[in-house]
Amino acid sequence: MSLFPRALAASAAVSVLALSVTGCSGDSGDSGGGTAKVRFGYISDYNGASLLAIADQQGLWKKEGLSPQYSVFTNGPLQIQALGGGSLDFGYIGPGAMWLPATGKAEVVAVNTLAYADRVIAQPGIKTIQDLKGKKVGVPAGTSGEMVLNLALQKAGMKPEDITKVPMDPATVVSAFVSGQIDGAGLWYPLIDSIKAKKPGLNEVGSTKDFSDKAFPTAFVSGTKTDKGLTTKVVKVLQQANDYRAAHPEEAIDAAAKLLKVDRAKVAADAANVKTMTTADLVAKTGDGTVASWLDGLGEFFVSTGQLKSVPKSDTYYEGDLYTKAYAK
C-alpha cells in the first residue's frame, strides 16, 4: 500500500499544472503585432530550460513571429497529459517518458540532448541495489526515475516485485527520502543535489551511466493535433537555440540559471550530466537512422517493463522529416 494516498498525488498534479511563468517575450496573445502565442511546458533543469532561455535572450521567438507562454512542470508525463487536454502546444520530456509518444499520445518534434542524470539512490548504509530488496523505493511513475530503477533492477537480476515501489511526485520523493520514509528512490539531478544537502551520506546504487550501450535522448514534443506550420516555426527556434548552446556552453548555463532563478553553479553541475549536439549532427543522425536506433532501444526496454506491447516504428511518432526540412529552410 502506498505511503501517500492518490488524493495527495492528484492534488500535487493540479498544483504543478497551475504553476506557470511567462517567458521574456511575455505576452500571451497577439499583442506583438501579428505574433502567434505558443504554450510551452518545461522542467526546471538545464535540459528542459536552456533552449527556451536562449531563445528568449537571443530574440529567436520574435524572429519567427512567435510569443511564448511558459509553464513549468515536475515531469514529462504531466506535460503529455496537458498536451492531450489542449492546455499546452509543446513540452519537454526526458527518456523515461518516451513511451508515451510511442503509444501515440504525443509527437517528438526535436531531439534535445542525451542525458545521464538519472540515479537510484539509497539511504546511508544501503550500499547496493540488492540491499533494497523488500524495501520501500519512491519513484515518479512513468519518468526517467522509474526507467533507471527498472534498468538497475534488471542488471542486478531482480524484478520490480522484489522491492516495494511507491509512486509519488518528484517533490514528494525528495521530502520522503530526507525524512527517512523511504529507503531508496529513482530520481535525477539536480533534485538529488537537494537531497544530498540534507543526506550527504546517501549512496548511488544505480545510474544511467552504467549502461554505455544505451542512449537516453531527451526531446521536445507536441500534441498530436498541433498545427504543422506552427510546429515548423517552433522547431526552427529550437534548432537555432540549440546551435547557440553548442557553440556557447557557458553562456547557455548563464541563460538557464537566469530563467530558472537558481545558482549558476547548480546549473553547471546539472549540465555536466548532459551531452549536447549541433543541429547539423542531429539532422545527420536522423537521416542515417541513429535517432531511430536510440528510440528503438528505448522502445525495447519499455516492452520489457510492460509499458509498451511492441516496439513501434520511430517514424510514427518522431517528426524526423519535419525536423530535417526545418533546418534546410
Describe this structure in words.
This protein is α/β, with parallel strands linked by helices and 329 residues long. It has two domains: 18-115 and 216-328, D-Maltodextrin-Binding Protein, domain 2 (3-Layer(aba) Sandwich); 118-210, Periplasmic binding protein-like II (D-Maltodextrin-Binding Protein, domain 2), CATH 3.40.190.10. The chain is built from 14 helices and twelve strands. It has helices at residues 6-18, 46-57, 60-63, 76-85, 99-102, 144-155, 170-179, 191-196, 228-247, 249-260, 264-271, 279-287, 290-305, 320-328; strands at 20-21, 36-43, 66-73, 90-93, 107-115, 118-122, 136-139, 164-167, 184-188, 203-207, 217-222, 274-275. Helix 9 (228-247) packs across helix 10 (249-260). The longest helix is centred in the C-terminal third of the chain and has 20 residues, at 228-247. The N and C termini lie far apart (54 Å).
